[in-house]
Design brief:
With about 240 residues, this protein is of the alpha+beta class. Helix content is about 25%, strand content about 35%. It has helices at about 1-30, 35-45, 175-180, 205-220; strands at about 45-50, 55-60, 65-75, 80-85, 95-100, 125-130, 135-140, 150-155, 160-165, 170-175, 190-195, 200-205, 225-230. The protein has a 6-stranded mixed β-sheet, covered by helices on one side. Mean pLDDT is about 85; it is low at about 1-10, about 10-30, about 105-115 and about 230-235. This is Protein DPCD. InterPro entries: DPCD. It holds the Pfam family DPCD. It comes from Arctia plantaginis. Belongs to the DPCD family.
Length: about 240
């Protein structure tokens, strides 16, 4: 009887030790993003804030001269758009290259070699979205049924590959959010749906990214807005 009790006690201690280690690892992993170059780059950037109604815009100017703009929904605290400033070839003002969200209307005319070639309105159009729990890609003008698409994680090329069985479409989707944390692309985190000729690809955010986004919104909340536009001052 005593021997049984000793065995049970030993097993209980082992279980507690494992639980404590697991708990400590969870605590460490949840803050691992603080050790990344991306997080330190954001912290070191010069930041300004513009708040208008339910939209918060943060402008970043990094030490290497790069510029980035993020737009957040104030109610949901979800990132709606992230764009990077691309310098003009002739030293002009340049344009904004969108990483997440809808394209930013470009007031500066672009002179490209192929500007006279019009894109077909039926050509597949790719856009990025961001939700609380998922990274999303939406590809419009894809009329094929859902079983036509093959969507696979490719860690050798650091992308998600989309192809159709009828060989009508092929695309590599970059996942910069995972690259910044040096995280693998997990096939199990990929899901998809298809409706109204639009293929929607979703990638479940890893816990590290969720933790970082939550903490970072608290960090940018410390940036005082340079302009607050009251609702009653808006043009009706």
């Amino acid at each position: 009887m005593k021997r049984t009790c000793l065995i049970e006690t030993f097993e209980t201690l082992q279980k507690k030790a494992k639980d404590n280690i697991a708990f400590e690892n969870i605590g460490k992993n949840s803050t691992m993003f603080r050790n990344t170059f991306w997080y330190h780059e954001l912290l070191g950037a010069e930041k300004s804030c513009l708040k208008e109604d339910k939209l918060k815009k943060i402008h970043y100017k990094f030490e290497n001269g790069k510029e980035m703009v993020e737009e957040y929904n104030v109610d949901t605290q979800v990132l709606l758009r992230r764009a990077w400033k691309v310098k003009g070839k002739l030293g002009g003002e340049g344009r904004w290259e969108v990483e997440i969200g809808d394209p930013i209307p470009d007031a500066t005319p672009r002179i490209d070699a192929g500007a006279d070639i019009m894109e077909s309105k039926d050509q597949p159009l790719l856009s990025r979205r961001n939700t609380r729990i998922n990274l999303e890609w939406r590809i419009r003008n894809l009329p094929y049924p859902i079983e036509t698409y093959s969507i696979s994680a490719n860690n050798d090329e650091r992308c998600i590959i989309v192809r159709t069985t009828n060989k009508k479409y092929f695309k590599r989707l970059q996942v910069p959010e995972l690259d910044r944390f040096n995280l693998p692309i997990e096939q199990a985190n990929i899901s998809s749906t298809h409706q109204f000729h639009t293929l929607i690809i979703m990638y479940k955010k890893p816990q590290m990214l969720l933790d970082m986004e939550k903490e970072w919104y608290q960090e940018i909340s410390k940036v005082k807005p340079v302009k607050d536009v009251p609702n009653d001052c808006k043009t009706q």
